[in-house]
Amino acid sequence: MRFVTLILVLAALSAIAFSSQVMARSAPLVDPDPIDVPAGLTDKQIAKEIKRALLQRGWEVTGDKSGEIEGTLHLRTHMAKIRIGYDSKQVSITYLDSNDLEYAEKRGKRVIHPNYLGWIGFIATDIKANLGVTALDNESEG
């Protein structure tokens, strides 16, 4: 009887440890806040700086039409796909699809591997910086 109890306790502890590891591997999927576009930039300049940010981080530009760019990242076994919408006022990044990033909807909320959030954070930061540099270049030329 003691042996059976010990086995059950070990099994329960293993299940708890495993579930906490799985939980740590997912984070709430929240699209980043929109990025303000500095005044005076053209749509062509905005699109160029979005593409620059994607390419510099190893993403592919997999879709490009007026006001919308799609980017795809292939990293080892992972794939992430995003849509970046833009106009003269703001740029917004939206999750589209992924593979091997543990995307799920749990209790009505989207979750994904935390690395995705880091990758998107880098893209958002790079876009904001690129737009700022272009705006400064425009000022110095004007």
Automatic annotation (TrEMBL):
Entry protein name: Lipoprotein
Native species: Solilutibacter tolerans
Keywords: Signal
Keyword Signal part of the UniProt annotation: yes
Range of residues in the leader sequence: 1-24
The organism's taxonomic lineage, starting at the top: Bacteria, Pseudomonadati, Pseudomonadota, Gammaproteobacteria, Lysobacterales
